[in-house]
Amino acid sequence: MDVALLPGTTRTLDHLLAREQSEARLPSVVAGLVRGGRLVWSGGRGTTGVDGEPGAGPDPLDTQYRVGSISKTFVAAAVLRAVEDGLVGLEDPVRAHLPELVDGVGRVTVGQLLGQAGGVQAETDGPWWERTEGGDWDSLRPILGESAVRHRPGTRFHYSNVGFGVLGELVGRVRDSTWREVVAAQFLVPLGMTRTTPRPQAPAARGLAVHPWADVVLPEPEHDAGAMAPAGQLWSTVADLARWAGVVAGTSGVLRRSTVEAMWEPQSVDDARGSAWSVGYGLGLQVWNAGGRRHAGHSGSMPGFVAMLRVDVETGDGVVVMTNSTSGFGDLPARLLTTLAEREPLDPEPWAPREVPADVLELVGPWYWGPSPLVVRAGRDGGFDLRGLTGRGRASRFVPAGEPGLWRGLDGYYAGELLRPVRGADGGVSHLDLASFRLTRTPYDPDADVPGGVDAGGWTGGA
């Protein structure tokens, strides 16, 4: 680990970890912070066994903890690699790849399952699956009929562990393998995540429940969850999950950047918390609205363990926290990430001139949507940004759409919409045609073919 933080920052982070272990009564807790793709701080506190014997403290880099639903992010990544390879479509009904699911879950789309918007039941019908030995796919399949669809697909957020059991089977089926083997071959091996496994490998923390009113603990069971394993089976370490944070941040190279950006986009929003959304679900990732900043990652819990992986998608800073306690920790991950940002703010990239394509350069500067001023600025990806000059107005990024002179919106109101510069008789750009609107170089330019025309009297000082 290349530690680049100031001693005072490290001391504060260590203290936050120690205080959480003590106040939340955690048998042990480990954490790490990622910046620029590197683990810049890690720490561990407490003991990993039942008796707290000397020497049983966690190795913050090498002790395994069960990561629970963070496993879903690996399964989602494998599904999206299949999408990249043309084997699966997000709009495909599940039955297109698992034909035995004729109705019920079979009619839900792959994208809806990834986005927790399929309306599929949360848990299995049998005993508490997280605490009992799991069965194979044939044992899960009978509950996936019409009664498993509890809400109309695509209409609301409804977290479903069962849905990810289905996605794990789908991944294995389209690759003629198993989800475990696919995840290992596509991600764990290329990223060097040698300590991420389906079952614990020493050194590994023992899962414990802490009595709510006395300082005693109870060992929790551990088993193979079978067909439900894709929902929460994996074990990992701080060092390995720091590498996985690079995947969530879109900097790892094992998924296309555009794929990761799609994972960040909310597919469903948990609106139970009031008017302003704070938590949603993208394609296999939880997303948080942290005071206007987008965070992505996933929480995880299984009996005896709680974990969190969270990344600020703008900066790429990430945090990993794991404990071997069923009741878990509080807002420690957010406090660690905030401490890093506040005490060691990232320097902006140095400005330097760069090449700008000629067809972008002729579009930069002010434009007007009716009387509303907008501005086009050259972007860093061969495209440009359209923004309101006064802080108002619809904003989007645009990139080449594949046809000369045609641009496609990437985000905001104009995501997916087409923009075409229209040239006048002199060959220069007269106006921009955007989703039926006309953007002109002057407000309501009468020479720019404004729909509905421009009043012949022009701009006046009276009604």
Describe this structure in words.
- The structure is a single chain.
- This protein is an alpha+beta fold.
- The protein has two domains: 1-49 and 60-352, Beta-lactamase (3-Layer(aba) Sandwich); 358-440, no CATH class.
- The protein contains ten helices and 20 strands.
- The protein has helices at residues 7-23, 71-84, 110-114, 137-140, 161-174, 179-191, 238-249, 257-264, 332-343, 358-361; strands at 28-35, 38-46, 65-66, 208-210, 217-219, 235-236, 268-269, 279-281, 286-290, 293-302, 305-312, 318-323, 365-369, 372-378, 384-388, 396-400, 407-409, 418-423, 429-434, 437-440.
- The strands form four sheets. An eight-stranded antiparallel beta sheet has the order 2-1-12-11-10-9-8-7, with helices on both faces. An eight-stranded antiparallel β-barrel has the order 13-14-15-16-17-18-19-20.
- Strand 1 (28-35) and strand 2 (38-46) form a beta hairpin.
- Helix 2 packs across helix 5 and helix 2 (71-84) packs across helix 6.
- It is globular, with a radius of gyration of 26 Å.
- The N and C termini lie far apart (70 Å).
- The mean pLDDT is 92.
- Residues 15-331 form the Beta-lactamase-related domain.
- InterPro entries: AmpC-like (IPR050491), Beta-lactam-related (IPR001466), Beta-lactam/transpept-like (IPR012338), DUF7586 (IPR056008).
- This is Beta-lactamase.
